[in-house]
């Protein structure tokens, strides 16, 4: 049975959700990977497709083309800045963001950044917009740090999101994760979201959890994923059970089917 | 500490931060009882009937008389938005050379196309010049009065909050212009600042209390202080947040819901 719980946000609640996470580890086998690949291959795609929880939550409908903006850049910059600030505690949040933005600009100037990347957006944005980018990233990093510092178990800011290339299916899955909390042999993922959770927030979290398990070298699932919506003061969590992993994978395949139909309609 | 400064303060941040040693312990137990008070009172107002559309309460609903903000002029709204963007740039330590242009660039990057940007685009030269002059005047007051803002105080700007009450039939929406301090410390340290371009009136007090209430419901921790600063008059109103403040605001929310339902 799939387990989705909803609680009001407080530091005690986040800690309790981490402590109460199921202790039994669930592992995905090669058979699971082959099965996922076969299902994605069955839904042919016109090009390489990228799927994530955001598309799952919108049932495969991409209403607008992604473009960088202060609010879409904040998570990438904010997480990276928090990682820097943890290594160098003398850095203020804003100084860490500045260093991260400088690195991005250096990458652009050295020619390593492709067009459409965060680095090229930052290089072309006017100063006032860059100021807003800093401001949004500072909001994000401070909020994430506040949540992280209240966690009693060891934690780290995720070095990157989880990416899984489905074999021979021209499909890349991206699972977002902001904090990884270590609990004995298992781990709990924490995802911070803006706004308020909608009715599809649970399937979104489940997809992130499944992608993280597929991306794990040994296929070991996190014991729980905790989604925090600080603006709404709400916390949702999904357990890393086999039923939830299967449901997450099914949602991703369904999203691919919807995308395929939409692509075919456009082509016709 | 509650202050009502009618003269422009030398440093808004200094007034708001106050004495570090005199801060009380963080109160993380009042939020639950406050929510219960609100839920009970809303049940009394709305009954058990379902609603097709939820009642949405915003800070603007507390301006006298109760309104959803439609009464405010579009030019006034634009001025408020641009000053709010200028505050964000100031807090991010951006060197602002032309406040009107920079705030406009920042706002467009964030909001994209909307009815206010279309309204702005069709303004004639005279109205545009008036808006620019207005924004510059408010900016001078803001920059002169805000005072030094250390980044160790964890400043966050334009923070949104969203709370569902009464089984989703009431939504409290809020946006605080500037918040400093953290809810993760043992002592209360969160200070909320609303920056308005209008003069302060009775409604401003209710708005201050509303910010504190929504922040308490959102984080589960009572903020230390709530305040409002007018760039129009240079007045700063600041009040410590107590249980009484929050209960009073809860009753004001119920009054607004009764009015809007």
Q: What are the defining features of this structure?
A:
heterodimer, A: 268 residues, alpha+beta, 6-stranded mixed sheet, 3-stranded mixed sheet, 9 strands, 50% helix, globular, B: 261 residues, alpha/beta, 7-stranded mixed sheet, 8 helices
Secondary-structure map with pairings?
The complex is a heterodimer of chains A (268) and B (261).
Chain A lengths: L3 E5 L2 H9 L10 H13 L6 E4 H5 L12 H18 L5 H17 L8 H7 L2 H23 L5 E3 L4 E5 L4 E5 L3 E5 L2 E7 L8 H15 L8 E6 L4 E6 L2 H26 L1
Parallel strand pairs in A: 2-5, 7-8
Antiparallel strand pairs in A: 1-9, 3-6, 4-5, 6-7, 8-9
Helix pairs in contact in A: 4-5, 4-7, 5-6, 5-7, 8-9
Chain B lengths: L2 E3 L6 H6 L12 H17 L8 E3 L16 H18 L7 H13 L3 H7 L3 H22 L9 E10 L4 E11 L10 E6 L5 H18 L5 E6 L5 E5 L2 H18 L1
Parallel strand pairs in B: 2-4, 5-6
Antiparallel strand pairs in B: 1-7, 3-4, 4-5, 6-7
Helix pairs in contact in B: 2-8, 3-4, 3-6, 7-8
Describe this structure in words.
The complex is a heterodimer of chains A (268) and B (261). By secondary structure, chain A is α+β, with helices and mostly antiparallel strands. In chain A, 50% of the residues lie in helices and 17% in strands. In chain A, α4 packs across α5, α4 (70-87) packs across α7 and α8 (201-215) packs across α9 (242-267). The termini of chain A are far apart. Chain B has 261 residues and is α/β, with parallel strands linked by helices. Chain B is 46% helix and 17% strand. In chain B, strands 1, 2, 3, 4, 5, 6 and 7 form a 7-stranded mixed sheet that branches. In chain B, a hairpin with a 4-residue loop joins β3 and β4. Residues 66-71 of chain B have low confidence and may be disordered. The A-B interface holds A 8-11, 69-71, 92-95, 125-132, 134-135, 138-139, 142-143, 146, 149-150, 194-196, 230-233 and B 28, 31, 85, 88-89, 91-96, 101-103, 105-106, 109-110, 151-152, 154-164, 182-184, 217-220.
